[in-house]
Design brief:
Helix content: 55-70%
Order of helices and strands: HHHHHHHHHHEE
Strand content: 5-15%
Largest sheet: 2 strands, antiparallel
Strand order of the largest sheet: 1-2
Number of strands: 2
Number of helices: 10
Amino acid sequence: MKLGLLIVFLIIGFCSPVRAEWDQSDADVLVGLHYATGDILPQSYEAAVKLFRKAAEEGNAEGQYLLGLAYRNGHGVPKNYNEAIKWLKKSAAQEHPEAQNTLGLFYYTGEGVSQNYQESARWYRKAAMNGNQFSMYSMGFLYSAGLGVSKDYLEGNRWYQKAIDTGGDSTEAARQQLALNQKSIISEQQALEDRKQDSTEKIEKLLEKIEENQRTQSTIQQPSIQPSTPHQKSSITRCNLSYQKPHPYASPSPVMNCTEY
């Protein structure tokens, strides 16, 4: 125990002249971490939380972040998401990338808060801009899936590439997702070309049908109208029957005399 404390104090004493901004709250965080991990001090979450809280209340961003994690995991204190989020947001407000990343994860999964992809993207973006590789990867995923942001494979690829360039635990996953995105982009482009071709063919067929209908209409013969002939003048015919004798001794023969008026 005494040896462990001596080592911690030696570390603090070594760091103090190197870092001008090193203060007591940083020392509290360092000792608290050794209590939490149990590497050179006996593991004690209670002792760790006591030191994290001391540093957090003095405005130390790392102390606030670690205290938030302690409340999240129930290490040294009862599990309490309200307290966890309170301290994580205090740390995140000081641009602590890990605190911002954790808040992004909370809002993505709905852990301790109502699930909100837009809020998740907001915190992931902040953390990514502050150099957190997992948040860069997460932004790539959100853009690729269209969660909390407009779906955009190219923007997703940009974030995946930043994660790859930054290096870290998420590098291989970013490479895999980048390759999948490239395939998705090619597939979407092909589908777009197919839709354009299909639309063009439909328009061409429609135009052909219209032209065919027009030709059909032009060949339909209208019913012919025969020219009327002038009405013939009506007439009246009157006939008289009479009998004639060719000679006085012959029998009379009927003779029809007709006159047209």
